[in-house]
User: Which sequence fits this backbone?
């Protein structure tokens, strides 16, 4: 048993995120047969991910604020602090803060057979698409 070193908080790259989003890694695999990854992700108002998918799916537990999660079929759900959303393996989706509030969530994923393909990043969610989808929710 040991206390894990605390990695630094990092700002997520603009290639995959619009607006200011910060990441704190909490759990990463130590052994070859381990897959679990847990991170605390903080979004500034209006910040969002690009479209993406995960090889083994993803759980998103909102710890503060209100999150918006969108899927390719146009569905947008509002998830409040204390609630958990699930994206199935391969489901293309995005996560965002509302335009007027900060949001943070715990992101739980499992590395894929090839850890480099655990998350596949796609195109950005446009401002117009974000506003349109928000209006429809």
Assistant:
């Amino acid at each position: 048993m040991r206390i894990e070193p605390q990695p630094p908080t990092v700002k997520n790259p603009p290639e995959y995120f619009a607006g200011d989003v910060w990441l704190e890694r909490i759990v990463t695999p130590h052994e070859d047969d381990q897959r679990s990854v847990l991170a605390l992700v903080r979004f500034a108002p209006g910040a969002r991910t690009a479209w993406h998918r995960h090889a083994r799916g993803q759980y998103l537990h909102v710890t503060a604020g209100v999150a918006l999660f969108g899927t390719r079929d146009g569905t947008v759900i509002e998830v409040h602090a204390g609630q958990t959303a699930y994206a199935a393996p391969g489901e293309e989706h995005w996560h965002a803060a509302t335009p007027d509030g900060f949001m943070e969530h715990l992101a739980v994923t499992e590395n894929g057979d090839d850890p480099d393909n655990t998350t596949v990043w796609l195109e950005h969610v446009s401002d117009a698409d974000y506003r349109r989808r928000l209006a429809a929710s």
Observations:
- The mean pLDDT is 92.
- The chain has one domain: 10-136.
